[in-house]
Specification:
Elements lengths: L5 H14 L13 H19 L4 H8 L3 H8 L8 H11 L9
Helix pairs in contact: 2-5, 3-4
Length: about 100
């Protein structure tokens, strides 16, 4: 199967808009250092989940948040989370976390 043509891509994008499908957000190439830091932090949650074989519900329990919030973190939909809160949540998974900005 080859790459979809422009018509197919347009059809899928329209469907996503119409149905308000909310998948994983990507990092914009013009992102600020803070946006990159927050995105990288979400990647740490994803990696932790995968390495430890947890599902979303189990991760939510470990973080002591509801499953919807865990889903938002795992899909980089973190507008409602401060950077401090994301760090505090991840430190529940890895208390020895060392973070680096820049």
């Amino acid at each position: 199967m080859g790459f979809p043509n422009k018509t197919e891509i347009k059809r899928v994008l329209e469907k996503i808009k119409k149905e308000k499908i909310q998948g994983t957000l990507c990092l914009n190439e013009n992102s600020s250092p803070l946006e990159r830091f927050r995105w990288d932090l979400c990647q740490k949650f994803i990696k932790y989940k995968k390495v430890h074989g947890h599902n979303q519900k189990q991760l939510a329990e470990l973080l002591e948040v509801d499953e919807a919030k865990a889903s938002k973190i795992l899909h980089h939909r973190i507008d409602e989370f401060s950077t401090d809160r994301l760090i505090a949540l991840y430190s529940k998974l890895d208390p020895d976390l060392k973070l680096k900005v820049g």
